[in-house]
Amino acid sequence: MFERVDQKKERLDDKRPLPKYTLRSLREKLLLEWTYNSNAIEGNTLTLQETKVVLEGITVGGKAMREHLEVINHRDAITYVEEIVQRQEFLSEWQIRNLHRLVLKEINDQYAGVYRDQQVVISGAEHTPPAPFLIKEQMEQLMNWYENEAGELHPITRGTMLHAIFVGIHPFIDGNGRVSRLLLNLELMKDGFPPIVIKVENRLDYYKALDKAHTQENYDDFIQIVAKETEDSLDLYLSSIE
Predict the structure, then answer these.
(1) So which residues are the catalytic ones?
(2) Which end of the chain, N or C, is surrounded by fewer C-beta atoms within 10 Å?
(3) pLDDT of 122
(4) 174 assigned binding-site residue
């Protein structure tokens, strides 16, 4: 399934280290598109250009402060993901909580980094997340799977399953989707893949694939989506240096 993706990854690896300014411009492009799309999937109404302006420190008139904070916080969370990758740290539950603290900073400080104490439902999904008293146990099971089994998987499969299992647990009151996509890219970036962007226009297929993973434990559709986006990001990098 991943043969073409792995071949493109090898071509990219052969070109490393990449030119400094090319690398910087690619990072800025993907940081913007990742932030815009991840927020838009969750209902943020800022456009791509408005998101760019907010990242530059400018306030957009007529938009809620929360929407501005979602952009700034997501940028900070990406920076934290990059730091974890650079330090070659092993993923921990503590890091997941830290990511969530960054995502909800000044939006909902009471619940930032804190597991939910209320039942939630996911609109439009068959899957219902577990009751609050089960969250700690299920997060421990997730981390046990990650530590003992996930390392044998291809980075795309590992990142996809981490995303899907985490968001199925839905451990936080808010921000689970953003954190799950950050975790997905964390796994890809650890193995030298560029970050991917799950695009807002593909939101319906994305939600359907997630619901299939949660209700049937069938991750194939979701893995296909992530593999395609991984190839798109690799193509972007390769087109810039070849």
Answers:
(1) 170
(2) C
(3) 85
(4) yes
DSSP 171: -
Are the C-beta atoms of 224 and 2 separated by less than 8 Å? no
pTM above 0.85, yes or no: yes
Any domain includes 176: yes
Around Cβ 85, how many Cβ atoms within 10 Å?
A: 18
Q: Are 175 and 104 in contact (CB under 8 A)?
A: yes
The answer as to whether 4 is a domain residue is: no
Q: What percent of the chain has pLDDT over 90?
A: 96
The parent domain of residue 211 ranges over 10-241
Task: Establish whether 116 is an annotated binding residue.
Answer: no
Q: Taking 80 as the threshold, does the pLDDT of residue 1 lie above it?
A: no
CA 21 to chain centre: 25
- Find out whether 43 is annotated in a ligand binding site: no
Q: Is residue 2 part of a domain?
A: no
Best CA proximity match to 206, nearest among 189, 190, 219, 193: 219
